[in-house]
Structure formats: C-alpha cells, structure tokens
Amino acid sequence: MSSKGLLFSQKARPNCTECNVSVGAGQTAHHCQRDYAGVGQRLNNPELIAMSHPSSFLDRHAALVFSIRTFAAAMLAFSIALWLGMPRPYWAMATVYITSNRLSGATWSKAAYRMLGTLIGAAGTIALIPNLVNAPELLSLAIALWVGFCLYLSLIDGTPRSYMFMLAGYTVALLGFPVLSTPELTFDLVSARVQEIMLGIVCASTVSMLVLPRSVASAIAKQADAWLGEARQLGADVLTGRGSDDKRDDERIRLAAVASEIDQLCRHLDYETNTSTTITRGLQRLRQHMLALLPLLASIEDQRHDLDAHQALTRHIAEISAKAARWLAAEGDDDREADALRFMLDGVQPPIDAAAGWTEIMTAGFVIHIRQLIDVAQDCRVLSAAIAEGRDPDALLLAFTADAMSPAMLHRDHGLALWTAAATALSVLACCAVWIATGWTDGASAPIYAAVVGSLFAGVDEPLPTFRKLYRAFLVVIAVNGIYTFGLLPRITTLELVVAALMPTFVLFGWMAARRATAGIGSLLVTFTAVQLALESSYAADFASFANANVALMVGVGLTGVVLSIVRPFGAEWIANRLLRSNWSTLAEIAESRRPLDRVAIASLMQHRLALLASRIAVVPAAARRDIANLRQLRAALSVNELRKASLGRPAAAAVNELLVRLAMACRVHIGARLPDQLLAQLDNTITSALRERVSEGWNETLYSLAGIRTGLFPGAAPYRPDEPGQGRVAA
Predict the structure, then answer these.
(1) Interatomic CA distance for residues 448 and 172, integer angstroms
(2) What DSSP string describes 644-676?
(3) Torsion sign across C-alpha atoms 582, 611, 284, 704
(4) Interval 676-690 mean pLDDT
(5) Do residues 642 and 705 lie in contact, with contact meaning Cβ atoms separated by under 8 Å?
(6) Among 248-252, 499-503, 614-618, 685-689, whose mean pLDDT is lowest?
(7) Three-state SS at 694
(8) Residues 26, 355: Cα–Cα separation, whole Å
C-alpha cells in the first residue's frame, strides 16, 4: 500500500500525455468449472484475437499459411539432402517441423538452440559410444544419466534455452543407439546426422524469414492490448463491486496465466531480426506495468470490501470510484477526465496523523490505489501508442518507472525437476534392460523413444492418462506410415510425385500443429510421421522391419508411461501444494532480507506461480484458492519490501525488525491454516509504534506498508485498534 506504488517509483504526471490511441478488449469465454488447462485460448491465440481486431485474409488463415509454408521448407530440405546424397534425408525434413514456429523470432530462437543442443549431443555421443560399446550395461547407464542430467537442466531453466538442454540429452540416444553395430563409424554417422539437422534448421529459418514472416513483437503487442482491455474491465468491476467474488478471482487467475505466456513470447524478442530495440524496450516496459495491475486490483478489492463491511465508504469516494470505473471501461483514453479524477481524489484523501484510526488508514490507502490504477492505465495506453509508432519509451513521461529493466523471474522447483529427470532416466534404463535381456535386434529403438517421449512429456502431472492418449496418437502415426510405405510409395517414381503424395497429410498435420486447440497432437503427428516414414533416396521397405520399428516405438512409449507413473505418483494436488508452499517460503526470504529486493522480480515470480496453479486450480483447497487469486502473499511481499526502504526512528525500526523476524518464522512453517493471532497482535503493535513516531519522509510509506501486510495476510480480521495509553505490548 505504499504511496510509491506496488512495483514502481512514482513521478509527477504532466497534464497532457503525448498521444492517444484506442485498444480493443478481447472477449474470453469463462469456464464455469474453473478448468484452466486451456487458459488464454482467446487472448493468446492469434486466430481468436483476429475476431475482435481488423485483420487480413492471411491473419484469419494464419494456421493454414504456416502449414503450407512449413511443408514447402520441409520439402526444400528433403530435396537438398537427396541432391547432396545425405544418408538419412528424412532427418532434414523432420527438423524443419521440429524447429518451425508461426512467429519468425521464435523459429530463429529454436533454431539457434537446436543447433547448439545437437552439437552438444553429438559431442557426447562421440565421447561415450566408442569407449563403452563393449559394456552395454555401463553404456546404457551412461546414456540414461546423460539424458536425466540434461533434462534436469532443461526443467529448471524454463526459458527458450531449455530446449537446448533437453535436445542435448536425447540426441545422445538418437545418435548413439543406432551406431552400436558399427562403432568404428560413429564419427561419420554422427557427422552426417548433424549435417542433416543443420540443413533442416537453415531451411526452416530462411523460409520463416522470407515467406510471409510473422513478427513476435506484433504478436506480443496484440496480445498485450487484448490483455489490458480485459484488465481494465476487471478494474471497472472491482471499483463498482460488479459481479461475484468468485468470478473476479477466476478472472485474475486467468489473466495471470495469459500474462505468463506473454512473458514466454517476450523471451524470443532478442532473436527478432526485423524488430528495433526501441520496440523491444517498449514491450518490456509495458510488461512491467502489466505486472503491477493484478496485485493493485486485488488490493483495491480487499480495501473496498473492508470499507463496505464497516460502512466507512463515503458517498463522495463511491461516486469517484464509479467515475473511475466508467473511465476504465471507456479504455482510459480521456486525459482530461483522468486529471479531473486525480483532482477529486486529492480532495477526498483523509489526512493521516498519530491519532488516525483504521478507517482513515484504509480510506487513504484506497484513494491512493485508485490514483495509482489511473496512472498505470494511462502509462499502458501511452506505451502501447509508442510501440505502435516505434517511439523510444525512455523519452516518455510516465507516472511509474521500474527500478531496472529486469527480466521476469520464473519459478524453479529443483526437487521436482530432479525427481522428474530421474524418472525419465529410469525409463531409458528399463527399455535398455528389455533390449539387452531379450537380445532383440531392433530393441535399441525402444530406449530412443523412451528418451525422446520421456523428455518431451516430463512435465505432465499425471503420466499414465497422458501416455494412454499418446498411444492412440502413435497408432495413427503407424497407420498413416503403413499406408504410405506399402500402399503409395511403391508406385511413385519421381520426387514431384512424392511431394504431391505427402502434401495432404503433412499440410493437415501442420495445420493442426499451428492451431492452439490441436497444437499438441498436431506437433506429435507431423514430427513422428516424418521420422517413422524414414524417406530415403530409394524405396527399400519390408514388413518385418516396419513391424519391428513400430513395436519398438510402442514398447518404448508404454514402458516410459508405466515407469513415470510409478516413480512420480504424486499428481497435480501434490505439485499444487508445493507451489503454494513456495510462495510462503519466498515471503519468508523477503522478510529475512536486510535490503530491498527487485520489486519486478518478486511480482513476476509469484504471478508465474499463479499461472502454474491455474491449470491445477481444481485441486487447490477453497481457502487457499481465494488467497492465491487475491495475490495475498505477493501483496504482503511487496509491502515488506517497501518497509525495508523506510527511514525510521529507533523504536519504530526495532518494532519493524521484530515483526519481520516473527513473520519469517511463521511463513517458514505455514501449511495453509490461519496465521497465528500473536503475529496479528504484534503487527498491530508495530502500526501503533509507527503512528507514534514523529512524522518523517518515510512515515506514510511505513504505515501503508504495514496496513498492506495486515489486509493481505489477515483478511476478515477485526479492524486495527490503537493501544490505550499505558497499555502494554504483546510479548514477542
């Protein structure tokens, strides 16, 4: 509740902003069961955004355009590989589908990391295979440990760079197991595979850049505008009390999840060759403002509830809230109305002195937060206009500026990542054990698929149901490849006919991969169809090889699903509880810190956890669901951070330090029940100490921060009452 803002430092706003632009609000379907597995489907889906924004034919059919463009790149890579006489040209074709993304910056990002991951995996293969080929058990253990270690690095990274680690892991299995029969040719075969993959990467990146490129920056700008429209509508509902508490909670959770996806897109901006650094900085600044909106709206909602409950919301403040709501609903594009609202807010803000009661403190905080909401909303509009016009965001006169242009911080669960990576490594070992024990010639393919599929689906909460669905998808892959291998390809004699025969299937699967609703199944179908079809320069298929290869595929996938479900039996509820405890641990760390931390980093970390909880919200207890939806730990953490900045006299500083020590201890052991009443009493005593302190520069900030901690961590508690003269403090 600091007057300096939740995330930013505040500066005086001039009477006139520099530009004026309207942004449309995206409409999002509300899921009545709060199932957020497809969260952000409209806000983060270019197809659906196009419905509420004027768009061209290419925008409306972007998925089909992407599919045709990617198929052309795949056929280009396949044709060049054939012309160069590469031994497995289908790897160049498959690499195009693995690398390609609808956005050019994301394609370049994935291409760069795929190239690095392939080179690291190739080096690992050359180091392991020749030295351990005569000890298959030891070699199996070494490959499994390599896959597990690289997967662990991938899981804790969480950025586009994580793909490099994951690929480096399973590339050793992809390259190593097929060359066990001819270890002396390891370098030659690995070198050929790397060349094929590099060819696919070059073709995918070049076609993405030259043929109807789609910019990451423009996609982020559209999605951010739609997100801000929804946030403004939520702000109007909060200010007027419109809608139910549950509905507003759902909206905050949904917006946090979509914002996390926008964060992931922002990480591709550095690879956007046709986007200026000015636009990149503007988007980063806009994202920092977006981080401020959700906790700000949650604070306003809690304060309004408290004031309504005690009939302390005056008629004048209620009227100003209604006017601010109308201004937000009108997209906040009337600067004169905004200035008039600020003037009215200045007139109703109660003075705070040593005799102030809880009502005055809450009213003052409520008024300050409404003003901050107006300022942040105007800043977002100014930034959106600057991004559209390519202007430098550093030259804008904004009400709020972040301490630094720090990147968003992601939640990382090292324990869960290590356990998940170990489970995948065990699945590789299990497949190796079946292969070695049976002496199955084609059995080496099973651990390959265990490494690949186990890495790709390592993050699922419930492995067994997921792998049951995968089985059906792989049956489709086997059926399609069977039709091509034994029905169509034997009758085809030219490359042109091969392209014509492949086009319907691969364009369909590519279209599915480009659509959000079918992206997962489409990507799997198109990639594994290209790999399993194994097109080469001449037709040389027989049913025995086909059957063995596909049996190995199903064994590898099946064993991986079984092992993962046995080793990782905890499920979504266990993971959700870990996320909830992580927020309390972060709050404890902030309370223990002796210096202020990066406020943007704190906000991005806790809102990322909220996004991770969105897909698991059905298993979160009702009380905890209300707390996370209102961002209570985040708001308390930001208030604690503000406390560390205040300059206080010795008595008040000692009381604050004592409070934060007790708060950290309580958060360390908190398991979901109500925080101890002793902590609330000590918090009230600290507020009393702050009120008695001689008014100083940081006095208001200290008082508002303490009140923010109280409303955040003790919702529904009785109002603060100052100690009577001579009344003793509660013992620490």
Answers:
(1) 9
(2) TT----HHHHHHHHHHHHHHHHHHHT--SSPPP
(3) negative
(4) 86
(5) yes
(6) 614-618
(7) coil
(8) 47
User: By the 8 A CB rule, do 125 and 172 touch?
Assistant: yes
CA distance 723 to 710: 16
How is 516-565 classified by DSSP, letter by letter?
A: GGGHHHHHHHHHHHHHHH---SS----HHHHHHHHHHHHHHHHHHHHHHH
Q: Which two tokens stand for residue 685?
A: 């005593």
CB 186 within 8 A of CB 125: yes
Whole-number Å distance between alpha carbons of 213 and 58: 11
Place of tokens 């060759």: 273
The half-sphere exposure of 665 on its side-chain side, counting CA atoms within 13 A, is 10
Cβ contact 612:592 at 8 Å: no
CA 74, CA 503: separation in Å to the nearest integer? 11
Residues 589, 567: Cα–Cα separation, whole Å = 31
Residues 6 and 365: their CA atoms lie apart, in Å, by 12
CA trace torsion 688, 694, 699, 703 (10° rounding): 10
Q: pLDDT per residue over 264-296, tens digit each? A: 777 777 777 666 677 778 888 888 888 888 888
User: Residue for token digits 């509420």?
Assistant: 52
Beta bridge partners of 261: none
Provide the Cα torsion 132, 137, 142, 146; round to 10°: 130
Record the pTM. Answer: 0.82
* pLDDT tens per residue, range 92-120: 999 899 888 877 777 778 888 888 998 99
| Of 179, 183, 176, residue with least CA distance to 134 | 183
CA–CA–CA angle 3, 4, 8 (5° rounding): 145
List Cβ neighbours of 403 (8 Å cut-off, separation of 6 or more). Answer: 9, 598, 599, 600
Distance CA(181)–CA(430), nearest Å, equals 21
